[in-house]
Design goal:
This protein is mainly α. It has a single domain, classed as ACP-like (Non-ribosomal Peptide Synthetase Peptidyl Carrier Protein, Chain A, Orthogonal Bundle). α1 packs across α4. The protein is globular.
Amino acid sequence: MKNVTAVIETTSAAVLEVLGTRVTVDTPLMSAGLDSIAVTDLVNVLSKRFEIELPPTLLFDHPTIGSVATHITTILPMEVPNESMA
């Protein structure tokens, strides 16, 4: 199972990097100061961090850190347990 907390933390760190300020998980990112250029930057940062392709409309469809993280969690590949074969 994916670690939702880690996805939220990574998403929050990316928002901090792009915006330069901390934002709570339920604050709409546009009202926190994200403009169209920052939206593009944030989507690109998140795509690189999670190694997945994210749509340019991500933050319009998922306007908070919490909703972005939930969406990313649903599209991340399933984690495979690191178990040795006996």
